[in-house]
Design a protein that fits this description.
The protein is about 30% helix and about 30% strand. The protein is α+β, with helices and mostly antiparallel strands and about 475 residues long. It is globular. Bound molecules: arginine (ARG) and zinc ion. The site of arginine (ARG) has 13 residues, from helix 5.
């Protein structure tokens, strides 16, 4: 074996000698020695990011800076061919690490160009590089894979991931579906930029996030090259394929819009999609500047049962109503730009996006937010709305349940009543500006609201987010 470039043979021998010593002692002792030694041999990265709701989502020991996905989807055979190149950085000395991937056959894995050993166990693709990757080390992982992608079933019974349709696929990954179509560090804690290139049969359109860099047809196939430069959680990536009518334009604010609409939904979708620029402009006045350079929508014709705030380009399973468009657009600030660190904080996404709907109605001739709040509050103590407090859904089975959306929005409304409109909107703008392209937690939001308003809000947060049962009115 030749030493890797730049590494003198002398040092290598030293490493080999220590490994030989370690092999002779029990594992626990070896771990201790490893932790104490100046050049630790490295330990395995954790199989999950540590989220109790989805323990195997994400992985420990490294951060993915960029994903470069090259995909080819055969819509009639429902076959996907993929190559994923991940630019990563080790956050510990790594002897091996996991990626999230389920189904599909992996044919080759390399780390910095050198073939790496790999095995599959459940949703984990376990990769053992030839050499320990030291803390801070930048490295590239290449995974070649193919097969027939299938969605996963979430704890709430919904389908999630690569969902085949009659003319392509509806690709939505919240909370855990990214692993059905690309190997990922799939927890919102890890955000990355993306290049996604998708080849589909001529006549189909493949839509992803960010800007369309180019589109080329040759030999009966069309390749679409997409790029999202702002950090994005894996669940917000899409590669939705279908027969779509495409519309492209640039808004007055310079946002590049790309709408892809299934012709069967076109007439119902048109009047709503027409409002996208004004909805984004209105949300920008409330929440601060739109975080991204591109926008748009994918309106598919599929029976999935939900829409998703895929970054820059929300995905609808049929023509959305205006409230849904407002909701998914608000997620671009709350959820996409400012992301969760744990799924239990999901009300920071869904409560905020729901409250945006209430505000939209209030400012566009509909019911006031107070009226919406009152109608919900009138529900009896046994109503499902009060089944659990939104700050603590209890498990992944409840993260998309009514209390998260509606009582989450009610909690925000109570904050607004407590601090007044001026401070409330200052809080929302400070939140989206201060955590832009990053993360936020419920505790951080509470501290910010208290700081901006100068009021103590711990009682309110405790009551509305963390206390079981219907809250008493303040
Ligand atoms: N975040 C989406 C929305 O509120 C809902 C996603 C639901 N996903 C699921 N697997 N049930 O618009
Ligand atoms: Zn939502």
């Amino acid at each position: 074996m030749t030493p890797p470039p730049g590494q003198p043979a002398r040092r290598r021998t030293g490493v080999l000698r220590r490994e030989a010593v370690l092999a002779a002692v029990p594992a626990a002792v070896a771990a201790l020695l490893g932790a104490a030694a100046p050049a630790a041999p490295g330990t395995a990265g954790a199989p999950g990011a540590g989220d109790p709701y989805f323990p195997l989502s994400g992985n420990g020991g490294y951060h993915v800076r960029h994903y470069d996905l090259t995909l080819r989807y055969d819509t009639s055979a429902r076959h996907l061919d993929g190559t994923a190149v991940l630019a990563a950085r080790a956050t510990q000395n790594l002897s091996r690490f996991d990626l999230d991937l389920t189904g599909l056959k992996v044919t080759r894995v390399t780390v910095d160009g050198a073939p790496a050993a790999f095995r599959r166990t459940g949703q984990e693709l376990v990769v053992t590089p030839r050499h320990t990757l030291h803390t801070g080390r930048e490295f590239h992982i290449t995974v070649a894979y193919h097969g027939t992608p299938k969605p996963v079933t979430d704890p709430d019974g919904s389908a999630d991931g690569w969902i085949p349709t009659d003319d392509g696929a509806f690709v939505a990954g919240e909370p855990q579906g990214a692993m059905t179509w690309f190997p990922a560090n799939a927890h919102p804690e890890d955000k990355s930029s993306y290049d996604i290139t998708i080849t589909v049969p001529q006549g189909r359109t493949a839509v992803s996030n960010g800007v369309l860099l180019g589109q080329r047809t040759a030999h009966g196939r069309t390749t679409f090259r997409w790029r999202e430069t702002q950090p994005m959680a894996a669940y917000l990536a899409t590669a939705t394929v279908g027969k779509f009518k495409v519309e492209q334009y640039t808004t007055r604010d310079g946002i590049r819009v790309y709408n892809a609409v299934d012709p069967r939904e076109a007439s119902a979708a048109a009047p709503v999609l027409k409002k996208l620029p004004s909805v984004l402009a209105w949300e920008s006045t409330l929440f601060g500047p739109y975080p991204f350079r591109s926008a748009g929508s994918v309106v598919d014709h599929a029976n999935v049962g939900y829409a998703l705030e895929t970054q820059t380009r929300p995905l609808y399973d049929s023509a959305p109503d205006l409230g849904t468009l407002v909701h998914e657009s608000a997620h671009q600030w709350f959820g996409d730009s400012v992301s969760l660190t744990a799924w239990k904080d999901i009300w920071l996404n869904e409560g905020f996006a729901t409250y945006a709907e209430w505000l939209y109605a209030e400012q566009h001739g509909g019911d006031s937010a107070q009226k919406t709040f009152d109608a919900l509050y009138a529900r009896g103590a046994g109503d499902h709305l009060w089944a659990f407090p939104p700050g603590d859904p209890g498990s992944g089975a409840h993260i998309f349940d009514t209390p998260v959306y509606a009582r989450g929005a009610m909690a925000l409304h109570e904050v607004r009543r407590a601090v007044g409109d001026r401070d409330f909107f200052r809080i929302l703008r400070a939140w989206s500006a201060g955590h832009r392209y990053g993360h936020g937690t419920t505790a951080q939001f509470e501290r910010l609201a208290e700081k901006v308003s100068g009021k103590r809000l711990d009682g309110l947060f405790h009551t509305w987010l963390f206390t079981k049962g219907k809250p008493n009115r303040a």
